[in-house]
Amino acid sequence: MSGILSEVAKKAGVALSFDPDVLKAKYLYERDRRVREDGNDQYQEIKGEFAGLAEDHYVDPGFTREPLFDEVEFIVIGGGFGGLLAGARLREAGVKSLRMIDLGGDFGGTWYWNRYPGAQCDIESYIYLPLLEELNYVPSEKYSHAPEIMAHSQAIGRKYDLYDDALFQTEVTGMEWDENASRWIVSTNRGDRMKARYVILSNGFLTKPKLPGIAGIENFKGHTFHTSRWDFDYTGGNSDGNLTGLRDKRVAIIGTGATAVQCIPHLGEWAKELFVFQRTPSSVDTRNNRPTDPEWVKSLEPGWQKNRMENFNILVTGGFQEMDLVGDGWTEVFRKLNGREMQQQFVGLTGREKGMLGEIADQEKMEGIRARAAAVVKDQQVAEALKAYYRQFCKRPCFHDEYLDTYNRPNVTLVDTNGRGVERVTENAVVVGGKEYAVDCIIFATGFEVGTTYTSQAGYDVIGRDNIKLSKKWADGFSTFHGFFSNGFPNCFFMGMTQSGLTANYPHALNEQANHVAHLVKYARANNVTCIEATREAEAEWVETCKAKARTGATYFAECTPGYYNNEGKPSPGRSFITATYGGGPIEFFDILKKWREDGGMKGLDIS
Fold it and tell me: How far apart are the C-alpha atoms of 363 and 382, rounded to whole Å?
């Protein structure tokens, strides 16, 4: 007896080489055996005895400076793409009194910290790197490597004079609103207590590294580090590889997500032995990186990057475009869903059935990715363990041309943990299923804090009007107006994932946000405004809108394998990576902002 997906395929005239209902059951089985009762609590903060794992390897030790007690018009917290875009758009708006603050020793954000071998963007660089036209720059490859992205970040800083008055190697420890002065007081670990009329919080997401809460992890006597703080003094080499220090080392890497997929080929090439400990495999499709064609660059016309970004964004959110300008693994599934053949198959189907046919198309794509693993990896038992049994966008898709081949090396061992993770760690080994794997070094590719509170990820609290703490107000989830403002926190702009539009090309969203902030600043300057704050009514309405929109994808992510997209298999309206954003999608969200600006009435804001 065929199931409902099979019936839909039959009704649409789709011939399949697999049973979609059996495959869906397999997906749910694989999900269920990975769900843990401890959810996000399976991870621990890098602090206390592990604090050294979060140290900055890229600056000279012993940096000091005198504390500052001055005043500026704008403080931007965060020197990654969000902060850089905010700074650039503020400069364009005429802001001169501007201070950037970042924990790192330079601009770059995630690309300052993530210098692991093989680090590379997985979104096409021509749309991922911001402000390319403004800097008259075209990346050297379709997918830029980390050093080029870091250099571009620095170039943005120079172009917009953001190095002037910037504070690096500085960690914000607190923010308080001074009602009498209508100023924010920003405190740091350098003893600063600076005043600012406006503050932009662009702390970023996926920035605070975390460790797995594995029993005995503190007992390991060998060397350890987190991928976001790669220890080249130990491994040798640089972000291009050449890890000569590992020639006589037995290395363990825990985690097989987007970071691990990129660094594992280099570890496999250089380590004496490499043990890869896997809980859930990533889907790994081809990347097909290539140098930028000079003739193509000559053909580019003004506005090319914006057009390309919008083309990509429309396609990957289910919209139609006559031409796919990017043409990569991200857009492939959506090209099929919106292609002529699929549209013909949709004829006569209900809305629900169309959704099911889309699910079947996803299954077909994933069958191809699983077949690639079987074709590349010689040991079919290993190949089977590397097959991802979930829908493509349940986890961030990966694209790499050498990752799967690495498992054909005789010195590389995949230790599949059957979805449960590492059992424990001893003084000299990692234990799975009662078997000890003796190693000299453990590398943690275990990601960053997601699903915890905003203030936990930021590393500081924000105290607003009437001593209200942001940690208390947002304890059960974000509460904002358009993602930028929160009542009780005047002149404070939030940039990032706070109830805003999410797109795979995250810098696109950040640029839209930066432009919106710049619009507000221009208005404030032109109208001699002292304070901008969301009204309670507007905020409450936006929160309800976000809750209603979040229900749209609730079933999809509830059925996904556990990960940071769905709060480790326990979706929460306010905490999950996806549900904390605006569920109507980025195009709809950007249009809301555009129409709000065009209205010109500053509706939803208290202006004084």
Answer: 21
